[in-house]
Write a structure and sequence with these properties.
α3 packs across α4. The protein has a single domain, classed as Rossmann fold, CATH 3.40.50.620. By secondary structure, the chain is of the alpha/beta class. The chain has a nine-stranded mixed β-sheet with strand order 11-10-9-12-8-1-6-7-13, sandwiched between helices. Strands 2-5 form a two-stranded antiparallel ribbon. Strands 3-4 form a two-stranded antiparallel sheet. The termini are far apart. The chain contains six helices and 13 strands.
């Protein structure tokens, strides 16, 4: 079985500056990590590979330093990877991101199954996976909490809906997005790190894609326009009160009234 996993490098801290003109995170010079939800997606793919055989390919879109998470994937057991990196991809919203990744998948081959994390911690939209499936014209299932069975031509999964759990059988090829805790992600292996230290990570740009119309990528291809983005102001003001229960109750009531909470 040919399995593709989409992964993303996200900031490893909440203290990230934002370009207020473009609404884009300033990622240069900050600690980064693999998106936590993508670890669950990769673990799901590796377990299917161990059970059914096949190959796991990881792909990501981002700056050159995003190759570090592909190396991490190799250390966990992924067979090959690719990074789609081009300044013309920068500033993409969910639509442009999904289109770029769908074009990347077409560049790499025809997978039986595509697995994505539910969402990214720097965007929280949970839209990229389903939009990719629409661009690829394949069925998809979101919010998968359990992979029940892999058949020859289909996959059976449990889908976590707001008020129900639904069991869905979807034909291959298809795309699923998995929720956290579907499996416990494994740790990177030092043996695999040594074995894969020279494994190639090919880079692809806009010119390598089937559709290289730059109006469909990055800021040019993003219909969502950010009006204003700014980090929340930190407020560490505090007071320490002492007194009896009645006195503290009166003070608390007065403070809540002063702040217009009551």
């Amino acid at each position: 079985m040919e399995i593709f996993v989409c992964i993303k490098q996200v900031p490893g801290t909440t203290e990230v500056e934002v370009d207020e003109k473009t609404g884009v995170l300033k990622r240069e010079g900050i600690d980064s990590k693999m998106n936590p939800y993508d670890l669950f997606a990769l673990e799901s793919a590796l377990r299917i590979k161990e059970d059914k055989g096949g190959e796991v390919t990881v792909l990501s879109m981002g700056p050159p330093q995003a190759s570090e998470i592909i190396k991490e994937s190799y250390m966990m057991g992924a067979d090959r990877g690719a990074l789609f990196s081009d300044r013309k991809f920068a500033g993409a919203d969910v639509l442009a991101t999904a289109y770029t990744l769908s074009q990347g998948i077409k560049k790499l081959g025809s997978p039986d199954l595509i697995i994505c994390g539910k969402m990214t911690t720097d965007g929280d939209t949970a839209q990229v996976g389903p939009e990719m499936a629409e661009f690829l014209k394949i069925p998809h299932v979101a919010n998968v909490k359990k992979i029940m069975e892999i058949k020859k031509d289909s996959v059976v999964v449990e889908m976590d809906m707001p008020y129900t759990i639904e069991v869905v059988e979807v034909n291959l090829p298809c795309l699923i997005t998995v929720d956290k805790d579907i499996y416990q992600p494994r740790l990177p292996s030092f043996k695999k790190k040594i074995a894969t230290k020279d494994r190639e990570i090919p880079f692809y740009g806009l010119a390598d894609l089937e559709d290289n119309n730059e109006k469909k990528y990055g800021l040019n291809g993003s219909p969502t326009q950010v009006k204003r983005v700014f980090p929340p102001e930190a407020n560490s003001d505090h007071e320490i009160w002492k007194g009896s229960g009645d006195e503290l109750g009166e003070k608390l009531f007065g403070k809540l009234k002063e702040l217009k909470f009551i």
